[in-house]
Amino acid sequence: xxxxxxxxxxxxxxxxxxxxxxxxxxxxxxxxxxxxxxxxxxxxxxxxxxxxxxxxxxxxxxxxxxxxxxxxxxxxxxxxxxxxxxxxxxxxxxxxxxxxxxxxxxxxxxxxxxxxxxxxxxxxxx
Length: 126
Prior knowledge:
The protein is mainly α. It has one domain: Up-down Bundle (3 helical TM bundles of succinate and fumarate reductases). Helix content is 76%, strand content 0%. It has 4 helices and no strands. The protein has helices at 19-49, 52-62, 65-92, 99-124. 9% of the residues are buried.
């Protein structure tokens, strides 16, 4: 039995965040957020089948200020996850592994998700 414990691998606190790690973590978090948002969507849709009172209650929740903020976040999570998924498909096709391409496509995912979210809500609020 060794007298000194073996060193542990460095953890997230040791490394400086890079776009690759931040996008990877964000992709996982948005996946969970989309699953939770899908449950809210299922609640909203099923409320319509229970009649006007139930649907109006669900609609009031979804259209409240907090509900709208969550819907905007869910929209952004959808577009981020979609754009990053397309990026991963490009990687599966063995394209985009150069470091400059990894950074460029990473920032493209961030920008595209923000632009698509803004466009969606501009059209929705018309």
